[in-house]
Design goal:
The chain is mostly helical. The chain has helices spanning 8-36, 41-54, 75-80, 82-85, 89-111, 114-123, 125-133, 138-153, 157-170, 187-203, 211-230, 242-251, 257-274, 282-298, 308-321, 326-343, 349-356, 363-382, 392-398. The chain is built from 19 helices and no strands. It starts with 7 loop residues before the first helix and ends in a 10-residue tail after the last helix.
């Protein structure tokens, strides 16, 4: 029987990387599933956008014969998706799914030591799978935000600027990750690097189109974004509409989006303004990263069900880097049940259709986690004895000794 078992070295490797194997296998399974049925509408939009850019067509017009809804990403994203558009659909979907899954796996592994990273990635797995099944880019967006944080912590400001610029090219809201630079002394240098990176990526589609055509694409994009921003319906159908949509549904509040988004932004940044002395504490900075990841979902008026992988990643990182308390365990458990459970088949279909989705229940655990994280940051500012709760191993992983940031 022993001759059928892998060698000790192989068993040890499998013991360390079993979760990575599951992530890879899941991405390939999603591609097979998409090939048996038909690729998700999002994937059809992405492939068509790459073709439309090359052919000089308006990226943001309606193409009902090709897909439903509209392309809402930047012209740069359409260009960068071109390699996926020229491959057969199944191969293209496999590579796209692998990119999203492995980017998040790598980002979390760069942020946290191995045991904590594996636990966080296991906790977020079902949301990653749900996002891949919808051919969404949300896992990639979460990865870019985390990689920007890690790069800034390690004084790799150029890499951080490029990661944030790439996130902006996918979805505009990763621009909020630029606030990580507040922890650094070389903030002006970072701002210039970010401006240069955003400009370079914005002009990259000139490789496939003319300057007037690109200007027209950006004009159409800005008009589409403006229309979405002005939307006060809170989202319908697959849209959750973030916290704003929930408030309209739960309490009948007919407010526009911007007051809630402004209040959320103020609450997000207030600990940074009041707790400048805590900026040198890695645990404080990691809490802010977690808070920002949840904020990007709660206060995004175009939040969809697959977008919650970003928030759940923030909650999972907070959970594995904080002391275990009854409250943190309850929050993580409720998140898995009500957020990840509503994303897949963990809950009965009738419950998802009649309660979870119509009443935007997924928003509630994320809001609870965000409020608790913000409270912890305010608590640490008020009482210095509460700081530095993240394990020493996590400190060394986040801020590597060979490139530890000089902080103020």
């Amino acid at each position: 029987m022993e001759r059928f078992l892998p060698p000790d070295g192989a068993r040890a490797w499998l013991g360390r990387h079993w979760l990575l194997i599951i992530y890879i296998a899941s991405a390939l399974a999603v591609a097979v599933q998409g090939g048996v049925r038909s690729p998700d509408n999002n994937f059809l939009i992405f492939r068509a956008a790459a073709r439309h850019l090359a052919q000089g067509q308006d990226l943001y017009a309606a193409y009902p014969a090709e897909f439903h809804d509209f392309f809402k990403y930047s012209p740069t994203f359409a260009l960068l998706f071109s390699p996926f558009a020229v491959l057969p659909p199944s191969a293209s979907l496999a590579l796209w799914s692998l990119l999203n899954a492995l980017a998040l796996y790598w980002a979390v592994s760069r942020l946290l030591p191995s045991p904590a990273a594996r636990l966080a990635l296991a906790l977020v797995y079902f949301e990653v799978l749900h996002s891949m099944q919808r051919a969404q880019s949300n896992a990639l967006v979460a990865a870019l935000v985390i990689l920007a944080f890690v790069a800034i912590e390690r004084q790799r400001l150029g890499r951080a600027a490029l990661a944030i610029a790439a996130g902006i090219a996918i979805k505009i809201f990763p621009v909020a990750a630029a606030t990580f630079a507040l922890f650094q002394q070389r903030r002006l240098r970072f701002a210039l690097l970010l401006l240069g990176s955003v400009t370079a990526l914005a002009l990259l589609p000139l490789l496939a189109t003319s300057p007037p055509a690109l200007a027209a694409q950006y004009h159409s994009w800005s008009a589409l974004v403006a229309a979405d921003t002005a939307d006060q319906t809170g989202g319908g159908g697959a849209l959750y509409g973030g916290l704003m949509g929930g408030l309209r549904l739960w309490f009948g509040l007919a407010w526009p989006n911007w007051p809630v988004q402004l209040a959320g932004t103020v609450l997000l940044l207030l600990p940074l303004a009041l707790g400048r002395k805590r900026w040198s504490d890695p645990s404080f900075r990691v809490r802010y990263l977690c808070s920002l990841l949840i904020y990007l979902v709660l206060f995004n008026h175009q939040t969809e069900s697959p977008t919650f992988v970003i928030a759940v990643t923030g909650i999972a990182i907070w959970f594995v880097t904080s002391p275990r308390t009854p409250l943190s365990i309850v929050i993580m458990g409720v998140t898995l049940l009500l957020v990840s459970g509503a994303s897949g088949d963990l809950l009965p279909g009738w419950l998802r259709r009649t309660i979870m989705i119509p009443w935007r229940v997924k928003t509630i655990p994320c809001l609870l986690a965000w409020v608790v994280i913000q409270w912890e940051m305010f608590r640490d500012i008020a009482d210095p004895r509460h700081g530095s709760e993240m394990g020493e191993a996590s400190h060394r992983q986040v801020t590597a000794p060979e490139s530890r940031a000089q902080l103020r």
